[in-house]
Design a protein that fits this description.
disordered N terminus; mainly alpha
């Protein structure tokens, strides 16, 4: 979800990000029935894959003549500072929950710091940073300047070691499939960045995007069983198809026009993604406090998810009013 402004803002991309942010909320909300679980099945192969791929595309397009100092500053401001602040917030929330229940709590601090294990959604940021690190290293290795090549080689080794550490220690959402998945994401992101830059043959890519989306739902309808293969794990394959289809459609469909206030709300997706677990936990705490056992059928899950979305939107709106909070929680 990180982005570098290189063109006039495409409202389609912000719209899809906003829908995917809502989808992530639905994924993390409980399901008590098979119909409620269908919402999860619908969004699971689409949301985070789209966030990863679209962020990579913007990142790669911004690497035409990379100013490493400026790039490091943008990544620190936009991604790393908010990541560590949200990590601290969610870690404190976990500790408080355990203290309230008089339960002991043990953790691997390095997994919390470097692999986002303080909250279920934060793994996205280490994964994105690893992929962006490898993407930048590839660009630097292809540079004619030897100093930049050395920098690229070091960055490639560091990013690869970070990925390997997560896989070997079975960190949340890291698996052996990530070797192949990372390579696929990078190849696709470099290809889509060319499509986005040259702005040619849009109709072909729009059709391809719709066909991929259709094939994704056929996969779901036919109930392909998951397997433990490295590359052809069907969950991984579906996430690649889902992310690619949405990215192609968001980047190539004619940009829609929305009222300015609506476009501003669509731009809240990053903050919604980072903060929504706070409200999920808060609502569940309130329900438990009043001994309300909510049954999450299809409509209850949907309404509950919308309540979390609205709360997250209001939170982001208020945070944006306070400059220091906007900087440390949203990276703006």
């Amino acid at each position: 979800m990180s982005r570098i402004a290189i063109k006039e803002r495409n409202s389609n991309i912000d719209l899809v990000k906003f829908i995917c942010a809502f989808g992530v909320i639905c994924i993390h909300t409980n399901s008590s029935t098979a119909n409620a679980a269908l919402i999860v099945e619908f969004f699971l192969p689409l949301c985070v894959p789209f966030f990863l791929l679209s962020a990579l595309v913007f990142f790669i397009v911004g690497l035409k003549k990379p100013d490493l100092y400026s790039l490091a500053n943008k990544i620190s401001t936009r991604i790393i500072i908010p990541y560590f602040f949200w990590t601290a917030i969610y870690f404190l929330l976990i500790v408080m929950k355990h203290l309230a229940k008089n339960e002991s709590y043990s953790n691997d601090w390095w997994k919390i710091l470097f692999f986002g294990e303080s909250a279920v959604q934060l793994y996205y940021i280490p994964k994105m940073l690893i992929m962006e690190g490898i993407a930048l290293s590839v660009v630097l290795l292809l540079n004619q300047n030897n100093k930049r090549r050395y920098t690229g080689a070091i960055l490639f080794l560091f990013s690869s070691a970070w990925l390997l550490l997560g896989i070997k220690n079975k960190c949340f959402s890291f698996s052996e499939a990530d070797f192949a998945m990372t390579a696929l994401y990078l190849v696709l992101a470099f290809a889509i960045s060319k499509i986005y830059e040259h702005n040619e043959h849009k109709n072909i890519f729009i059709i391809l995007g719709f066909l991929l989306l259709l094939s994704l739902f056929l996969f779901k309808y036919l109930h392909f069983d998951n397997n433990n293969g490295l590359l052809f794990n069907t969950n991984g394959l579906m996430s690649i198809i889902g992310g690619l289809s949405l990215t192609l459609l968001a980047f190539t469909l004619p940009s829609l026009n929305f009222p300015k206030r609506i476009e501003i709300i669509f731009g809240f997706s990053y903050g919604i993604y980072l903060s929504h677990i706070l409200f999920l936990e808060a609502f569940e705490f309130i329900l438990n406090h009043f001994r309300i056992n909510l049954f999450y059928d299809f409509w209850t899950k949907l309404i509950f998810s919308i309540c979390v979305l609205v709360s997250s939107i209001l939170f982001v709106f208020l945070v944006k009013k306070v400059s220091i909070l906007k900087r440390v929680l949203l990276g703006e």
